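User: What would this chain look like folded?
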Amino acid sequence: MRKLITCLSLLVVAAPAMAEDLDIGLKGKKLSARLVVGGLSNPSSVSFSPAGVLTVCDSANGQVVLVKDGKAEPYITDFATEYWKVDAEKGTKKFKLGPLSSVWVDAKTLAVTNAGVGDGAETVMFYTGPGKAADGESTNAVGPTSDDAKDKGEGNLTGLSVSEDGSTIFVAGQGSDAKTWVLSVDVASKKLAGLASADAAGIEINSPMATMPWNKTSILALYSGAGGKDDGLIVQWNVKTGKVMKKWTLPGLTDPMGFARVPDARSIVVVDNNWSLTEVKAGRLARVSFPKDATEAKVNVLSEGLRGPVSCAFGPDGDLYIAQLGTEFDSDKGQVIAVSGIKKYAGKKKAGAAK
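Assistant: Here's the prediction, encoded as structure tokens.
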């Protein structure tokens, strides 16, 4: 499905020649980091078009932007936004959210979650060119799936990924913890529906944050669990049956929110937000592999100096692009940074693989 990257597209994502290295405490000698773009507000997703253009959900600003020559250019604007939390004591609204995830289905079509409209009303929107949020074609919304009175339906839709043949979009849903869902969209019919329920499978860990096609019959889903607790989980789901194939704990990671497959490898990288509603804490970047027959993933922390990382994706240049909140959320401190050398670094050690 993905086309060959042209030289021109590589120029789109490449950092300026004199880009200054960032100090994020990288532990590999051949690893380095640089700033790609700043001035974002609660950025929530990074992805690349088939032509290699970096695409970012600038969530609190209610827009999706394309990054070219180090500048964020609005692509889809005017998404609804809402505040995720309210301080019970002060009544202060915190963590403003709009579109949480976007992914290119093909060279012309961008899918985006309109996560600022509230649980039970959120959908996945499709766009074939620049414009406003209302211009897109929408899926259906998914209403309550449990008897819990607090269950308003699926919301905070995030973690989009696309099947290899482009026919299906996978979605992480965070509507109600009463029944936690990974959902899917049939691209042809634009139908959004539940695919796999953690609760139905006896999995108590909730908050799915990201999805990833793993092979022809399965996906991986990343669960962050409870804030501040070491209870993150990766589950391999059979996409045909909605059943669990394997699952792995992530020791040492408190709030994993994004992952990406290392190019030409069977290992992945995970970004750990280390979530707090009062401040942006130091987050982690880790390489994760799956030893054969183990239920605990092997976690190799590469950095503990990120600032609220929430999403990551490898670019056509082989670098890992990370969206992070920056030093302060609900501000203009959000960034996308790039880490170089991971592919070579990860390839030094043979890792077990989920099959």
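The chain has one domain: 7-346. If you want, I can go into more detail on any region.
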